[in-house]
Amino acid sequence: MNLSRITPNSVSADVTAAVDPDILQAAAASVGNILLGKEEAVRLSLACLVAGGHLLLEDLPGMGKTILAHALAQVAGLQFNRVQFTSDMLPGDLTGAPIFNRDKGEFVFHPGPIFAQVLLADEINRASPKTQSALLEAMEEKQVTSDGVSRPLPRPFFVIATQNPVDQLSTNPLPEAQLDRFLMRLSLGYPDKAAELEILRGEDRRVLLEHSAPVMDAQRLIALQAAARSLHASEPILAYIRALAEHTRHGAGLRYGLSPRGAQALLAAARAWALLAGRDHVLPADVQAVFPAVAIHRLGLSGDARDATQAAGELLAAVAL
């Protein structure tokens, strides 16, 4: 594949005018000051937000998943709701439901916590499959339907779901159809020595979060999302993504191959990653940087996060540029 034919293509002028080239760097730095030692995870999470996707965080309790979700909403200046999923939670507890109003003599819809710009679905795999599935329409269609009436969700709408490892007690694995709704899946892991010492010396991360200021707002984020969608991806880049998807379907020994929707997700994430790097076109390195986070949960790779990441690296190495 001849990548020398890749040429930059400017984002449309009306979108570029609304985009501050330094705002994403400021957002990444602000979140990184709260979640120490996780620069790559922070940038991937921010790329997921800019790409207009949803994020799944899978790790042991206490690794900073909730802090990361709060910090992303805070720096983006977005309305934030957190829902703690439990085994007895009903779909209506999430989406809302019509409640009879005596004064009006009729049922009035009361919105649930899903009506937010950023929804933290905490420990999603502790809920029943029926409640888990209540997120599907909202994540895909950006709306909630109740009693035959569809109600749009706020824009932008970003779901960050956390789940504990499936071998823990009282967990229900997410079905493949719901996993595919998440643009990325990340595992934060333990901090390195320097970061953990800094955490122990410093203030509580929640106190720091309270004092952090937004660096953008909803309209600015929507403009950034539009800019990401407009980033140029050359024919060689599209062919490279197609070759990666094809390799996962034949001869890779995987449980599943990457679907066309998965390939589209890879392209969207690569465009957002390129925007974070301050470029107006996608490079092969952008595709490679986001590939593990986008592909691992779509290919049926499970087990140790390092093993899955290594498998993703082997897939990248097997497909020539």
- In DSSP terms (H or I, runs of 4 or more residues), the helix count works out at 14
Oligomeric composition of the shown chains:
single chain
**What is the average per-residue confidence, as pLDDT, rounded to a whole number?**
85
The CATH homologous superfamily is named P-loop containing nucleotide triphosphate hydrolases
H and E order? HHHEHEHEEEHEEEHEHHHHHHH
Helix content: 40-55%
Radius of gyration, in Å, reads: 20 Å
Low-confidence stretches: 1-18
CATH architecture assignment name:
3-Layer(aba) Sandwich
Number of separate strands: 9
Distance, first to last CA = 5 Å
Shape: globular
Number of structural units classed as domains: 1
Largest sheet: 5 strands, parallel
Structural class: alpha/beta
CATH class: Alpha Beta
Helices and strands, with pairings:
Elements: H1 13-17, H2 23-34, H3 39-50, E1 55-58, H4 65-76, E2 80-84, H5 91-95, E3 96-101, E4 106-111, E5 118-122, H6 129-141, E6 143-146, E7 149-152, E8 158-163, H7 176-179, E9 184-186, H8 193-201, H9 205-211, H10 218-230, H11 235-249, H12 260-276, H13 284-295, H14 305-318
Parallel strand pairs: 1-8, 1-9, 2-5, 5-8
Antiparallel strand pairs: 3-4, 6-7
